[in-house]
Design a protein that fits this description.
289 residues, alpha/beta, seven-stranded parallel sheet, two-stranded parallel sheet, 11 helices, 15% strand
């Protein structure tokens, strides 16, 4: 039995779905009604990381765990790792981030992920870290602006990033969860090419067959927008991450998807074509109408 956490997120949902297609899977979910993975082989345990009794129920009889955490303040990795150790789990696969292995990355989020990885290491449970680059699905945040005005607003339009399809990250995680010999290893995961926000906008324009315009945000405007959604340390971390991207720190391509799954990573043009509906304009709301 494999336990999947974070199964309502971009990667966890795909991991749960890929595992469920091949056999039984258990999901720990704070809000089970939000799950999209269903079926006779899917067992759901309602609970959250801070509820040790729920964790113990979810981990009973489990051989491997896929761990996704996102709180910037709660010690969720420590909680799950400690409970997994007590339950005799044989393999804990943690979704981390590629920046943790980069000396120049010292923002709040990266520091927290390094601490989280260390907590998993110290638990005594055999571990593997899956460290993806930026998700292609992050561009879904552009959808409201594209639908309403045909404009994309973002920082640093010419800064390249080897962004990755979350489905490819999930496929790597599934290969690690179901394979052998991955314990004690960390896998960086990127897409097949470095692409800029301006180039992504042009790709979406071709997919949607309508003109789109990219407008670069200034740092102050970006900070204001981020502070409306996130606490100050998280907002500043995103800004620092954007500066690193502008300096070229996120452009490197690695072959992990090909190496672990036997097929190449999907480029942004494929992801965008398969998610075009999310960006499609509402009836009567085409730019210029």
């Amino acid at each position: 039995m494999i336990l999947v956490t974070g199964a309502t997120g971009a990667v966890g949902r795909e991991v749960a779905g890929q595992l469920a297609a091949a056999g039984p899977v258990r999901i720990l979910a704070r809000r089970p009604e939000r799950l999209t993975v269903r079926g006779g082989g899917v067992e759901v345990v309602e609970g959250e990381y801070g509820d040790r009794a729920a964790l113990d129920r979810a981990l009973r009889g489990v051989a491997s765990v896929f761990l996704v955490t996102n709180s910037p303040t709660e010690p969720d990795d420590e909680r799950v790792a400690a409970a997994a150790a007590a339950a005799g789990v044989r393999h804990l696969v943690k979704l981390s981030m590629m920046a943790v292995e980069e000396p120049g990355a010292d923002d709040f989020i990266t520091r927290r992920q390094r601490e989280n990885e260390q907590a998993v290491r110290e638990s005594g449970v055999p571990w593997t870290f899956v460290r993806p680059r930026t998700f292609m699905s992050n561009t879904l945040s552009w959808a409201p602006g594209i639908r309403s005005t045909g404009v994309v607003h973002a920082l640093y339009g010419d800064a390249p990033v080897a962004c990755v399809d979350p489905r490819d990250v999930a496929a790597v995680a599934v290969a690690v969860l179901t394979g052998t010999g991955h314990e004690g290893r960390a896998y960086a995961v990127s897409g097949p090419e470095a692409i800029t926000a301006r180039e992504q906008t042009a790709q979406l324009s071709r997919v949607l067959e309508r003109p789109l315009r990219f407008e670069e945000l200034g740092v102050d405007a970006a900070r204001t927008a981020l502070l409306a959604k996130y606490p100050p340390p998280v907002a500043e971390a995103f800004l620092q991450s954007a500066e690193r991207q502008r300096a070229g720190a996120k452009a490197a391509v690695v072959p992990t998807v090909q190496d672990l799954t036997g097929r190449p990573a999907r480029p942004y043009r494929i992801w965008s074509a398969e998610h075009a509906e999310a960006f499609a304009p509402e009836a009567g709301r085409f730019a210029g109408e």
